What we know:
The protein is of the alpha+beta class. The chain has a single domain (33-130), classed as Tetrahydropterin Synthase, Chain A (2-Layer Sandwich). Helix content is 51%, strand content 21%. The protein has six helices and four strands, in the order ααβββααααβ. The protein has helices at residues 2-21, 33-38, 67-74, 77-88, 93-98, 100-114; strands at 40-42, 46-49, 55-64, 120-130. The longest helix has 20 residues, at 2-21. The termini are far apart.
Amino acid sequence: MWTSLTIVVGALITIVAVLYTTNDSNEGQAESIDTIAEHSYESPEITTDLQDGSFVRIQFHILTDGEAAKEEISKRDFQISNILIKELAKMDADDFKSGLAKLEDVVRSKLNEVMIDGTITDVYTINKILQ
Length: 131
């Protein structure tokens, strides 16, 4: 009985030691720009109207968490357009000028709701025109 108990205690100590001494050298470091570029996707340019009748043209650079997510998001152009048209229809020109960060967050969140292979980590506005 003591032998079994000694083996179990020894195994637990080993597991705890491995968990606490294993150090990931990349922990806390940002991804390299090359990795970001490999896993990012440039959305098509969308032109639509706002609630007040103004027109906007907008385009995003979408960052994903891996190659599978990048491939999937490239097939979801129609959903990107749909999300943008619906969200922009709720905005007026002043909202558009001051609310780009919120729009980027909404796009990221709504795209993550439909993603299957990975996630969208960030959305950046790379082109915008308000007319």
